[in-house]
Write a sequence for this structure.
């Protein structure tokens, strides 16, 4: 049976960052609805360590809305997750 995907109400820590596990970055993922694609669920991942945090919107391998960004003034994962939650141009 396939697990139904739904919008996460909270961020979930990943076992390892999928980008390049050898870098040993922490990562957290949350599903958001993309209003430009009929509210399709789109994973957004916050990743980094120490005082440097980024985020990645993953619209799939050929998605028009895939990109990475830098979390401005985020020194903790909690600050980075809050930054993305409040970022009003997540899907542009």
């Amino acid at each position: 049976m396939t697990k139904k995907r739904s919008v996460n109400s909270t961020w979930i820590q990943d076992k390892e960052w999928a980008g390049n596990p050898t870098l040993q970055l922490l990562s957290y993922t949350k599903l958001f609805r993309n209003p430009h694609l009929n509210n399709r669920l789109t994973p957004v991942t916050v990743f980094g360590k120490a005082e440097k945090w980024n985020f990645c919107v993953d619209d799939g391998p050929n998605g028009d809305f895939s990109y990475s960004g830098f979390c401005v003034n985020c020194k903790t994962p909690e600050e980075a997750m809050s930054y993305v939650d409040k970022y009003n141009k997540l899907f542009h």
Remarks:
- The first helix runs from residue 77 to 86.
- The first strand starts at residue 12 and ends at 13.
- Residues 25 and 48 are 5 Å apart (CA to CA).
- The beta strands are 12-13, 26-34, 40-49, 52-57, 67-70.
